[in-house]
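fructose-bisphosphate aldolase: structure, please.
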Amino acid sequence: MMPKITRDQVKVPVDVLVDAREAYIDNYMAATRGTGRLMLFACDQKVEHMNGDFYGEGIDIADLDPEHLFKIADQGVCGVMAGQRGLIARYAADYPDVNYLVKMNSKTNLVKTSQDDPYSGQLHDLEAVLAMREAGVNIVGLGYTLYLGSEYESTMLSEAGQLIAEAHAQGLIVVLWIYPRGKAVGDREKAPETIAGAAGVALCLGADFVKVNPPVASDGKTSAENLAVASAAAGRTGLVCAGGSTVDAPVFLSQLHDQIHIGNAVGNATGRNIHQRSLDEAVRLTKAISAITLADASVEEAVKVFDGEADFSL
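Here you go.
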């Protein structure tokens, strides 16, 4: 049964201006499909990982065409599609029904951490996004990536904090991508205490949702059990897990189910696992993921959706 919420159950942060409260609630309900849970289709990798995530062995040839992303979001079942402002600007007119989240910063993977700690600077100001919203693009929120532990951490913290304040004042929701990374972090990027710390930072910055990598299993606890600690640390900031590289759909769906029902995540943020497939397969996977995320389906029920033996819609 789908876990529905009502508008008065949305906890509106007090930094949302009074005249923007209804817009914030509209955007929150749209992004979560009225459930309070987030199914985020992450499409920002054309900068982050360049063309390596869209063309090559094991990747369906359809993924080479950027419009493939928009077709999936339009035909599948997603809460929101995340991508850079320019990407959205080029295609949104043809896909007006998709909920968009504009990724405000990005960097390529050409400069490795061994060469320099990561820094992802803001690409444009909020006014450029608001202008698109005024022009009719269905923008419900913003996204920002923060590399905790980088020597440039303070700059990104400042940018993210200011961005969240400005976005909330305009009624937009904000999702932070937080990846601890840099020489000071070393091999502790996915350590349970590091992931939980990242979740708490997102809360203190005022984010509505935070996207983190699943923590590693440790000390007799599974990854999902360790994730529950991070979810608790996030408080009223909803925690969602990154999807990672492409794996078999049943494996991915099982991991997602555990992240939500053991790890207390409030959804998922998935990119490659979806868009590297053919359009038909990708659409079916969005429906299977949403069946678990938005409707509490079992893994078995979700696999049937992916296999085409059952359908899922909202």
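Notes: The first strand starts at residue 38 and ends at 42.
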